[in-house]
Amino acid sequence: MKPGSWTAGLGACIAVLALAVFSSHAGGQEKPRKSSPTASGKAGASATGASAAKAAAPKVDYAQRFAGTCAACHGANGRSEMAGTPVLAGQPSLYAITQLFLFREGRRNNEAMTAVAKTMTDDDMRGFSDYIGTLPPVPAPAATTAPDAARMAKGKALADQHRCSSCHGADLSGGQQVPRIGGQKEDYLQASLHGFKSGTRPAYTQAMVSAVSQVPLEDLDTLAYYAARLAPTPAAK
Ligand code: HEC
Ligand code: HEC
To answer: Ligand 1 within 6 A of 179 CB?
Structure first.
């Protein structure tokens, strides 16, 4: 923890997030996703002059740190195989930084993840989030059984009825501060939806709390079943 940077970081985060929330309200379905450079330059990873503008730290550094620190739980390619651990591949960087911020601030709590986030500086949060934003979505491993067609249809109908796609996008691939949920792991989706409903997962805005307030518990499970089985579509470059 760096107490000195705390207040400034907080302010900066809130400014960024407030802007994002505002633009999402103004833009509705509009999702101008990642604008991060695609260059996967392997060179120039030293600490030289990298602090210019908001480009944050060099990507290679955070790719390495991700491999060293995060991959054990979240998977080397961002597709976790560990129970209860979300897929990060394909997640917008703005969403990722929001959640890291909530964990660090103690507003979102998970023993494993809070411990990790507490050690992060503002540059770390930005660096890891920028790196996550470059990870292409990874499809789930081939299922041994075909999805239950009736349950998928019910899930789709529920998503339409509750207008999930008005924020998460027609293919549920998210954008900006809204997470990708298509292709996310079912156990994690289920836990998140129940968490929003019961209040154990405080969200950054009221969006999800009000979205699930009308949805019966068993329908949350059907929504998780459905979203988890959508093949993730590539993020718009
Ligand atoms: C010990 C396992 C573990 C490690 C190591 C770990 N995470 Fe996590 N992470 C989790 C779990 C579990 C969750 C879900 C927590 C919950 O359910 O609230 C999570 C959630 C997240 C989320 C929120 C995802 C979402 O969809 O809301 C982000 C972003 C994230 N981790 C990034 C990282 C980064 C970056 C690192 C490395 C610096 C890292 N994690 C290291 C276990 C881990
Ligand atoms: C008004 C916009 C909006 C609507 C409508 C909405 N969401 Fe969300 N959703 C969000 C935002 C924003 C977040 C990020 C939560 C936060 O604030 O921390 C989110 C988070 C989630 C998460 C957590 C994902 C993760 O990686 O942790 C799930 C699951 C989810 N939404 C599913 C749904 C479903 C299912 C519906 C329809 C019943 C829905 N959402 C409707 C905006 C919305």
So the answer is: yes
Residues 94 and 100: their CA atoms lie apart, in Å, by 10
Residue nearest to atom 24 of ligand 1 (CA): 86
Q: How far is the CA of 40 from the centre of ligand 2 (A)?
A: 30
| Nearest ligand by distance to the CA of 66 | 1
What pTM, to 2 d.p., does this model score? 0.83
Cα 169 to ligand 2 centre (Å): 11
CA distance 185 to 156: 17
Which CATH code, of 1.20.58.220, 3.40.1280.10, 1.10.760.10, 3.40.50.300, is assigned to 149-228? 1.10.760.10
The architecture CATH gives domain 3-134: Orthogonal Bundle (1.10)
**pLDDT: is 20 or 194 the higher one?**
194
Could you tell me which of 178, 167, 160, 131 has the C-alpha nearest to residue 226? Answer: 160
Q: Which residues pair with 178 in a beta bridge?
A: 175
- Ligand index nearest the alpha carbon of residue 133: 1
pLDDT in tens, 87-107: 999 999 999 999 999 999 999
CATH 1.10.760.10 domain position(s) in the chain: 3-134, 149-228
